[in-house]
Amino acid sequence: GSAVRVIGNQVIGNTGGYQQFGDGQGIGIQASGSIASGNIVADNILGIELSSNGTASDNLVYGNSSRGLSVSTATARGNRVYDNSIGIITNSSSSILNNLVYDNTVSGIDVTGSSVTVENNTVTQPIGNAVRLTGASVSNVTLRNNILVADAGYVVNVASTSQVGFTSDYNLLN
In this predicted model, what pLDDT tens digit does every residue of 113-133 receive, in sequence order? Predict the structure, then answer.
């Protein structure tokens, strides 16, 4: 296909001077329908933001003050995400697969939309939630075959408005 490929870069320290479509959000990598792979993305406001069938794979994402990895109608696979406020956040029709997520301050994985699969991840949170589903539009979320640990928070936190179609199986919870 014709997807843009962002591969093997270091994007570090972007805390507000960057202007993508005039938003000035301090985003490390932002793309639609693209591939972001093998990058080191650190110390930005937002690490990687992908949408429209994009794929983030095998990236090292850490130290971002807001979110490490944000996907919307996209896939996050095989990333190492740590020391952010929120490790990985997704709002709809996305797959979060085979990621190592740890030491984020609010949550490891946040789901805020529908039709999301969270599978084969390892999430360890000394504070905050390992996985959090929150929002009125959250439905049809599958949580399968993950290792989830939260020392001072919820291992799986599902808001009462987020329970429609929620399935969880073969997870190791601690």
Answer: 999 999 999 999 999 999 999
What CA–CA distances, in Å, run from 65 to 9, 70, 94, 161, 168? 20, 13, 23, 28, 30
**CA 18 – CA 21 distance, rounded (Å):** 10
**Phi, psi for 162 (deg, rounded to 5):** -115, 15
Contact 113, 92 (CB under 8 A): yes
Strand pairing report for 60-62 and 86-90 = unpaired
β-sheet with 55-57: strand ranges across = 5-7, 35-37, 55-57, 75-77, 95-97, 116-119, 141-144, 167-169
Closest residue by Cα to residue 45 from 85, 72, 73, 101: 85
Of 112, 121, 108, the residue nearest 93 (C-alpha): 112
pTM: 0.94
- Torsion-angle region of 15 (φ positive above 0: left; ψ -120 to 50: alpha; else: beta): alpha
User: Measured between alpha carbons, how far is 100 from 70 in angstroms, rounded to an integer?
Assistant: 15
